[in-house]
Structure prediction request, 282 residues.
Amino acid sequence: MPRKLECNEQREHVCEISNFTIVESMDLSEYEFPDHPHLAFGMFPHSDDSTYVVTITKELADILQSTEKLEMQNVSLQTMVLWQNLRSLDASHNNFFELTVEEGQNYQLRELNLSHNRFQTIDFVKALPALRTLDLRHNYLETLDFSLFEMATELWKLNLANNRIQTISTSGSLHLPRLTSLMLNDNMLNVLDASEWRFSMLQDLNLARNRLRYLSMCEVNHSFPHLQMLYMDENRWDCGHLNATIRQLHLLSVKPMNYYTNNGNDDDDEQCPKSVEDICCY
Prediction:
């Protein structure tokens, strides 16, 4: 007789399973998993050292076909096979580095939170055309081909902050008609080449804490015609270029903003001898 896994009654409309371990070598036939549309492994945000879901194998993915929303934060997840019916996945705060998708599958995933993990590549994005929000903060990305997002035409929020991104490339023109927010702060970008981007609804662009010296206003005007706020602080802006850029931003009714504040720290004032509208330049 399989052991039936019971739902904790901690949260309404969520089947929460704790005090349980899943590893790759497990015989899953020994367990009966709940047939529930919203499943959660562990008790996040509460501390739960009793629950480990190291992997979601193909066998387990087949068992969980009726689950449309899945939460697995802080459970030591490393690898996972995706299933078609899953619409929302929060697998943040793990050791996650591999999400397996199959060609030709009609994946319905719309919300994907992979923040605070170990992803170095995100090729799986090509198979997820229904994505609306993607959170990849605090991963290990170093280079990124934005052409991966070519099919993600429903995407409206993309967060790539706090990675190690040095270069972003694009193979041909890229049109993301619904994208309204793009977070690229806290990376290592020297250049932002937006010449092939057509993000016609983008309103917020965060470039804070990179290594940028220059921003092409021709590209901004062409690629982000509805831009409203541009976060620019803590880069390596050339003062001459920054002056001209901010004047043009004002003409376009775009607000140049600081994402971080120094809170009156005198050390920051010494490191920044010049500024334009509180944005440091050199």
Observations:
- The chain has two domains: 1-101, 141-260+277-281.
